[in-house]
Specification:
alpha/beta
Length: 232
Amino acid sequence: MTDHPTGATEPADDAGSVLADRTVLIAGATSASGRVLARALVDAGATVIAVGSDQGRIDALVAEIPGVVGERADLTDGDDVLELAMRVHAGVGDVDGVIHLVGGWRGGGGIPGQTEEDYRVLERSFTALRYVSRVFWDDLLASPAGRIAIVSSTTVERPTAGGANYTAVKAAAESWMRSLTQGFAKAESPAAAVTFRVQALAGLEARLAASVVDLWRADAAELNGRVETLSA
């Protein structure tokens, strides 16, 4: 694995069609970054499945961005994720990409302040990643351009006492992504698992969206296992 701090990405001439005939599922789609990403993927030609837990916010996203398919699901509930996959397969078909934006922050108080309540809340993002990647694994393997990506944190390399719970969960998610990387390589699949690291996502929404779209402009062999740091 290599950490690749990146500069600006040159736009491609086929920006409007790079994702034509591709279906991308966004987990945690009703966040600020999810809305920007959904717009960028639709503009690039993708069919976008926006998944969230709040039906009202999903409906607002669908109304805001024509072409987005909204789905409500509790991604920390295995049965709910299985039902989501069945609806997606029946209504849209197999997916070519999963972008995992489920997250959140709780911290402070040094090591004694790393409460069990905070950890359980933060751990939900890792649980969701495990369920979603498992249920759509066969889709990604079979796709001619399967991609899965998460947003992690630069604190994985520089942990702090006040953010110990948060960083531990992000480190676990990155470990899971490395396992997906090995699984894709072992299967000789044209799929790739990519981790984006940020210090803070606020203000980087457009940068993240452009970087996600670019995943379908690169070869899987170049991408699989990449850890890419996004900065302003």
